[in-house]
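Could you join me in thinking about how sequence relates to backbone shape in a protein? We need material for that, and I hope you will provide a protein of your own picking. Label the sequence line and the structure token line clearly, so we can match residues to local backbone shapes. Would you write everything just below, so we can both look at the same thing?
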Amino acid sequence: IRVQVRDGANQPVPNPGAVDNVRFEIVGSTGGAILSTTSSTGPATGPSVSSQTINGIATASFQAGTTQGPIQIRATVDRSDNNVSNGIGDAISATTTVVVSDGKLFSLTLASPIINALRVNRVSDGVVPPADLEPPGDDGIPPDPDATYSLTVSALAKDRQGNPVVPGTVIRFGVVDEPFNVAADEFSMSGSDGDAQEGGTLFTSVSGEFVTGGGGAGPGDVLVVFGKEVQGNSDLESALTVQRINSQTSLNTSSSFNLNNTTGSTVNYGPVLPYVVARAEHGNITATGVTNDIGRASANLNYTISTLGYLNVIWAQGESVDTVTGGAKRVTDAEIGSYPGLAPGTIVASPSPIIGNRSEQVQVCLYDAMLAPLQRARIGFSFQLTQGTGSVDGVSGSGILGTSTGANGCAIAHVVTSGLTASTETEASGTLTFSLGGLTTSVNIIVNLATLQVAPSAITVPAAGITRTITITARDTGGSAIPGVAITGACTASGGAGATIAPATFGGVTGPAGSTTHTVTASNFIVPGTPTTPPVSGSGVCTYTTPQGLSASVSFNGVIQTADCGGFSPCP
């Protein structure tokens, strides 16, 4: 502990000579801790010692006792005469805090670096001298990859005061990954109602399937208990080997659980613990590591590129001493993760574009930088539509695909759209985007305007004229009606007694049902006949068109009554 003493001019105080001018003392209970320094009379030790400054600086050493936690140390000088040997008349003090700890393992935290944590292993490792190996490219992929990856996994070990544990503390690592229920997207033997016997080896779960789940468990499998997930049960965080299966809901481990006595006495919260019973089939991990000066121990998680995306459980575990009983205990941290692929990843969707206003299937696939498929991933989706609706796997608007990616890295999205407007040469009718993390890909949704229908397609105009409503409907290639299509119309008439169709122009947009209407009145289509002059009839047409160039017409014809009505009565 170093003290610097300055005068009013901010200069080091003069050396005090044959007296002491700094007093060091432990504030509060010492727990056996002592200070050591050199005073004007020689070495001095104890909870309170005096020392001299040299060029304004004095030092003392602190030796911890049995009390753990923060301990405050105060240094005092006498402003009146720069001498504490004759008492202190005008005190100036400064304090510092020293955290006392035993350095024994109390907690572990698993972590994996986000950047540069994954290594692509190579065929030449251990065969060709490192100096002769061709280095990997900028993408991190060597010229001779062996289809396996290694991921750095680290555990940070701390004592109860939050300090690094003693360097060289041994930390064990482990991993399990099967059996897994793909349909339920969870481990086959897992639950959230586990009950560990504090200080014993019995573990039970009312919902357990230890005999049948995924084929059942057996001796040598691992029971992982996530005690930290439930408040008050962190001491029961465990990764213990299964000794025997008693029944569907009961098993025994080969070693005992901790006492769950962090508070000083054992507490039993009952069947509230999340757990997994599993074994390792796809990956392995470095068995042990040792802590360095900051309490970190690291291991390599190794796996093949054929297992990317498989879920796993990784744990780090070390031996410690129960602070209550003085007996042995385990300190564990366990996490559910997966076998990651090499960045950057790729997400692709096909076909693109897809046809709108009907049901379509889109295949969405995930690959890593080595083009290895990523399995068991849940891909998100979202529609971008100006009009109409869309759903994927029965979920409207946005959400998650109903199935995870399979062994080929792909999932099938069942897409249904309706009420979409027609596409143009420059703009699709909508977009469907698939995403996972920061990866996205989109497919356009196209609605091609195929036909323009009019009803009625022909109108007979009697002598008295007629008013009729014409329905214009736009349809796509699949026959579905298309809303939002702009329709223009123009009507002409001739003959008769000055035949007219009014209004002669039209503009509209098809509605939600894909149709719009134009009401017209046709007049003066008939010039009555005389005994010497035959009657004269007129004709006309209304033509409707779209911006895409489709058209449809309605014809108008005046009807002149004759003696022969073609077998119909009454005559028009």
Remarks:
- The chain has four domains: 2-100, 108-338, 351-446, 450-558.
- The chain has a mean pLDDT of 92.
- Residues 450-558 form a domain with the Immunoglobulin-like fold (CATH 2.60.40.10).
- The chain has no helices and 46 strands.
